[in-house]
Specification:
This protein is an alpha+beta fold. Helices cover 60% and strands 12% of the residues. It has a three-stranded antiparallel β-sheet.
Length: 72
């Protein structure tokens, strides 16, 4: 089976975040380093996308819990 890769702009659009957010998360070690081609463009697999979506979902969950605690 052939692996499909997304460029960072497509990933950002899929996740509804900025390209810079993805780059920052990678720099800060929150996301693993992306695969790069000979032009140094970042590429992500479907597996990468699932991991990133899970990370963002967990982040949102934590933010919601913080807001709930403040509201109490």
């Amino acid at each position: 089976m052939k692996t499909i890769y997304l460029k960072i702009n497509k990933l950002a659009k899929e996740l509804n975040v900025s390209i810079q957010t993805i780059k920052n998360y990678e720099t800060w070690g929150i996301l693993p380093k992306a695969r790069r081609d000979n032009k140094k463009w970042r590429y992500y697999t479907a597996e990468d996308v699932l991991k990133i979506k899970a990370l963002f979902a967990e982040e949102i969950k934590q933010d919601l819990n913080k807001h709930k605690k403040r509201a109490q």
